[in-house]
């Protein structure tokens, strides 16, 4: 949005965690993949011995995904990993909404929620 000089106020929904939620998610997912790789290489109960057979049995998903990704790149002949921020289309398929009306409705909902009890607010938040 910043790259195309657009404001986040144009969006009807903005993530509560923002960019930090995305950073946390990618770091956590990389951590999970590293741990999965490590446990596939040295499975529990193998007494620290690596086995190629066990590794490919436990980590086959990564091999399959890599093969399909490479096949897609060969078939489509597009070797760029991602698009530049200037080329991303932010408007196609977007619903036109009255942002002022939506903001007003959100403010009314916040005021109504403040008048409700703590238990009702927690129930609405989690359910």
From TrEMBL:
What Pfam families does the annotation carry? Answer: AA_permease (PF00324)
Species source reads Candida tropicalis (strain ATCC MYA-3404 / T1)
PANTHER family attached to this UniProt entry: AMINO ACID PERMEASE, GENERAL AMINO-ACID PERMEASE GAP1
Q: Which UniProt keywords apply?
A: Amino-acid transport, Membrane, Transmembrane, Transmembrane helix, Transport
Q: Which family does it belong to?
A: Belongs to the amino acid-polyamine-organocation (APC) superfamily. YAT (TC 2.A.3.10) family.
The listed locations are: Membrane
Q: How does it sit in the membrane?
A: Multi-pass membrane protein
What GO terms fall under cellular component here?
membrane
Q: Which domain of life is it from?
A: Eukaryota
Q: Which residues form the signal peptide?
A: none
Keyword hit for Transmembrane: yes
Q: Is the keyword Oxidoreductase assigned to this protein? A: no
Annotated Amino acid permease/ SLC12A domain ranges read: 1-83
Name of the featured protein: Amino acid permease/ SLC12A domain-containing protein
Q: Which residues cross the membrane?
A: 12-38, 58-75
Q: Show the GO MF annotations.
A: amino acid transmembrane transporter activity
């Amino acid at each position: 949005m910043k790259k195309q000089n657009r404001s986040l106020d144009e969006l009807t929904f903005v993530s509560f965690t923002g960019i930090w939620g995305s950073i946390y998610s990618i770091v956590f997912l990389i951590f999970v993949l590293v741990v999965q790789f490590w446990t596939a290489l040295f499975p529990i109960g193998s007494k620290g011995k690596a086995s190629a057979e066990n590794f490919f049995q436990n980590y086959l998903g990564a091999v399959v995904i890599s093969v399909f990704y490479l096949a897609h790149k060969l078939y489509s002949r597009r070797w760029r990993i991602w698009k530049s921020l200037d080329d991303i289309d932010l408007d196609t398929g977007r619903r036109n909404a009255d942002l002022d009306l939506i903001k007003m409705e959100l403010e009314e909902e916040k005021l109504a929620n403040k008048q409700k009890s703590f238990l009702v607010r927690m129930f609405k938040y989690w359910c």
